[in-house]
Amino acid sequence: MNRFVMIAAMLLPTPVHGQVTAADEAAEAVLRQADANGDGGLSRDEFRDFMQGMAGLGHRAARLVSTFGVYGIAFRQIDTDGDGWASPAELAAARD
Ligand SMILES: [Ca+2]
Ligand SMILES: [Ca+2]
Known about the structure:
The chain is mainly α. The protein has six helices and two strands. α2 (20-34) packs across α3 and α3 packs across α4. The longest helix has 15 residues, at 20-34. The radius of gyration is 12 Å and the shape is globular. Residues 35, 37, 39, 41-43, 46 line the site of one calcium ion.
């Protein structure tokens, strides 16, 4: 599989029209659960939990990331300043 296609798919907004709010709330719950230290952002380990949680929700790109174990590649797409921590702003930017 082309990894760039996969990452592009990950960054696309949810395709389920009319269920954006419910999907966002579910993702928010997964995010809070993955954020083990409660700092509002995700470390690499927390990001892995987040991807697995999103995969559990049926999120297509997250399932691909989990299946292929490419958490590091996906994380680098989110962690744009490269400090090894996905801040709330970086997570929000990735979702838009
Ligand atoms: Ca955290
Ligand atoms: Ca960062």
